[in-house]
């Protein structure tokens, strides 16, 4: 079994565990006023345990455990990205795990258990949805019915002056996975941490998209293995990056 196969199996099991809680959790608020549930904690605990068994010696940086890492290689875990959706019974939420090596995500798996989509990628080998290769958009036209993804806070802070339609789905990783399969022309993310994007990053990159800093257009080349907030980001196929940046005001 390859590393990616092992990761996919672990993330799939974690998703099924999360699904067993879906529709029957009572949330509590974290200091930043975002939701956390018993499911988030149980899934992260499961992921830490299984990753430790299959990949001994590799540290884990997760959203729900206030614990840092000391080495330059670590699994980055978001047990349920989209907890507010999870609590409300909206099926757009995902289990996300990425491997970051010296700042670069090299393996990633994202599983949406409620509708059965599992995305995976390995650096240099491509990206897949349920085992089938996927690719970001390759055409250059932004049409009226094309979709641009925005994270929740991006909607509140930004104005989009493009002909396309805007969607905010309540989960950061959707901007990456839906760009990767060609459903979105791009995704804009603000106020995120490394666990929100590490898994989706490698999936989007392997599907042909790029990740840049929204304000400057400079490539976001490295992800920190810390709990700090990241700059505003744009994920999109290269040909859509200039028009999206030109069409956003914040």
Describe this structure in words.
By secondary structure, the protein is of the alpha+beta class. Helices cover 30% and strands 28% of the residues. It contains 7 helices and 16 strands. It has helices spanning 3-21, 38-54, 83-88, 152-157, 172-180, 194-206, 241-246; strands at 28-29, 35-36, 59-62, 73-81, 94-101, 104-112, 117-122, 126-129, 132-133, 147-150, 159-160, 165-167, 186-189, 210-213, 233-236, 248-249. The strands form 4 sheets. The chain has a 7-stranded mixed sheet with strand order 3-4-5-6-7-8-9, with helices on both faces. Strands 12-10-13-15-14 form a 5-stranded mixed sheet. The chain has a two-stranded antiparallel ribbon with strand order 1-2. A hairpin with a 5-residue loop joins strand 1 (28-29) and strand 2 (35-36). Helix 1 (3-21) runs antiparallel to helix 2 (38-54) and helix 5 (172-180) runs parallel beside helix 6 (194-206). The longest helix has 19 residues, at 3-21. It starts with a helix and ends with a strand. 46% of the residues are buried.
């Amino acid at each position: 079994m390859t590393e990616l196969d092992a990761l996919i199996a672990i993330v799939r099991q974690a998703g099924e565990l999360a699904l067993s809680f879906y529709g029957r959790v009572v949330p509590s608020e974290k200091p930043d006023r975002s939701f956390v549930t018993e499911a988030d904690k149980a899934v992260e605990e499961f992921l830490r345990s299984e990753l430790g068994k299959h990949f001994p010696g590799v540290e884990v940086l997760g959203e729900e455990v206030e614990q840092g890492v000391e080495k330059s290689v670590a699994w980055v875990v978001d047990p349920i990205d989209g907890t507010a959706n999870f609590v409300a019974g909206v099926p757009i939420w995902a289990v996300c795990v990425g491997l970051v090596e010296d700042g670069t995500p090299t393996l990633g798996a994202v599983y949406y258990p409620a509708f059965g989509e599992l995305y995976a990628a390995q650096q240099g080998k491509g990206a897949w949805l349920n085992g089938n290769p996927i690719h970001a958009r390759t055409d250059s036209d932004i049409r009226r019915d094309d979709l641009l993804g925005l994270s929740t806070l991006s909607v509140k802070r930004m104005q989009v002056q493009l002909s396309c339609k805007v969607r905010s789905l309540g989960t950061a990783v959707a901007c990456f996975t839906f760009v990767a399969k060609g459903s979105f022309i791009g995704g804009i993310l603000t106020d995120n941490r490394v666990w929100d994007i590490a898994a989706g990053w490698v999936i989007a990159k392997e599907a042909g998209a790029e990740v840049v800093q929204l304000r400057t257009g400079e490539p976001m080349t490295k992800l920190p293995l810390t709990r700090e907030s990241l700059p505003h980001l744009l994920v999109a196929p290269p040909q859509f990056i200039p028009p999206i940046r030109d069409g956003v005001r914040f």
